[in-house]
Design brief:
Helix content: over 70%
Distance between the termini: 64 Å
Largest sheet: none
Shape: flat
Structural class: mainly alpha
Oligomer: single chain
């Protein structure tokens, strides 16, 4: 005789409180930001403040305080602290972007008045500084040659120095090299120009030339190349080195065939950023290259010009035509640096190790 077993339902305890808290809608930060800007402008107008920077600072403060108060009321103090941290990040981002956007807008709006094909293909030969006309070709040519020579000098030296510090550097010599690289990183550009002036020009008797300016630029470029290359080489996994050495490959060939190709994307990016850093230097060029209105394609003899020096000279004249040329040359310089950064990012993405299968 079988007995049926009766199953009893399992009773679950009911939650005493709600499992979810109230959440603010996604558009809340935008609404708080709009209200803060409106309140900041109103306070600035009521107080008689003429500086829009003061309006912006008040709006940023109201945005952070408003975000904290509203979030605390709806979501609780714990979530409010998280939103305040996010709000501070956004405020700092906006404060950093506004000057850059303003600078780019002013440079583009004023530089496009003169910038055209004629401006890029003619020099200032035969044109008075107070007159309209002339171009930037001689300065653009000088910048390309000086930066190119500086790169040919600094890039190999910086690369080999970084390889030594990462792969071979031990002991006091490596520490001394690292110390001097750190010191050179913060050296003012005028000091590099004075060093080349005292040795190349005064002691050895050479005259002004683009090559002299390129040597000073190379001094400024080398520590940047060393530091960026050193960090990229440190990112290469040691397993790759060990696998190559285990196959009997010499260390120098391992570095040449395994380590450097693996880090070539980051190394190229570092070199491009170093080039962008020295492109806008004026002090070494002013001391060693002197500047000229003529086209001088020979960087080893005679004075040359460069884009930063051209901007300085034209703006110092003070006339409307000269100031317009200065803005146009500044726009060309910004475009040149931007192109270098885009090329560096493209090479880094192209040479980056591929992930996935």
């Amino acid at each position: 005789m079988s007995h049926a077993v009766q199953e009893r339902p399992v009773a679950f305890a009911k939650p005493r409180g709600p499992l979810s808290h109230a959440r603010l809608p996604r558009w809340t930060p935008l609404a708080v930001a709009a209200g803060s800007v409106a309140a900041g402008v109103g306070i600035g107008l009521a107080a008689g403040w003429h500086s829009k920077v003061q309006w912006g600072m008040v709006s940023a403060l109201l945005f952070v305080l408003g975000t904290y108060a509203i979030t605390t009321k709806v979501e609780g103090s714990r979530q409010a602290k998280d939103r305040v941290a996010t709000s501070l990040v956004w405020v700092c981002f906006v404060l950093a972007v506004i000057p850059l956007v303003s600078l780019a807008w002013v440079t583009i709006s004023k530089g496009m008045e003169v910038l055209d094909g004629y401006f890029l293909t003619h020099s200032m030969n035969g044109v008075l500084d107070a007159e309209a006309g002339g171009g930037v070709y001689h300065a653009l040519l000088g910048t390309l040659e000086q930066v190119g020579i500086a790169t040919l000098i600094a890039a190999p030296i910086g690369l080999l120095t970084a390889v030594y510090l990462v792969e071979y550097g031990t002991g006091k010599l490596a520490k001394a090299v690292t110390f001097f690289v750190d010191v050179m990183t913060g050296i003012p550009s005028i000091v590099a120009g004075l060093f080349i002036l005292s040795t190349w020009t005064l002691m050895l008797g050479f005259g002004p030339s683009g090559f002299a300016g390129a040597m000073a630029l190379a001094i400024l470029m080398m520590p940047v190349v060393v530091r960026s290359t050193e960090e990229m080489l440190k990112l290469v996994p040691n397993e790759l080195r060990e696998a190559s050495l285990a196959l009997g490959v010499p260390k120098w060939r391992t570095i040449l065939k395994v380590v450097l190709p693996t880090a070539i994307g980051g190394i190229t990016t570092g070199v491009m950023l170093a080039v962008a850093r020295i492109t806008g230097e004026t002090a070494p060029v002013l001391l060693l290259v002197f500047g000229t209105k003529l086209i001088n394609p020979n960087p080893f003899e005679g004075a040359q010009s460069s884009l930063p020096l051209y901007v300085y000279e034209q703006y110092a004249v003070g006339t409307d035509a000269a100031v317009a040329r200065a803005w146009a040359a500044a726009l060309v310089l910004i475009a040149f640096v931007m192109i270098l950064n885009l090329v560096a990012r493209g090479i880094a993405r192209w040479k980056a190790p591929k992930t996935g299968r």
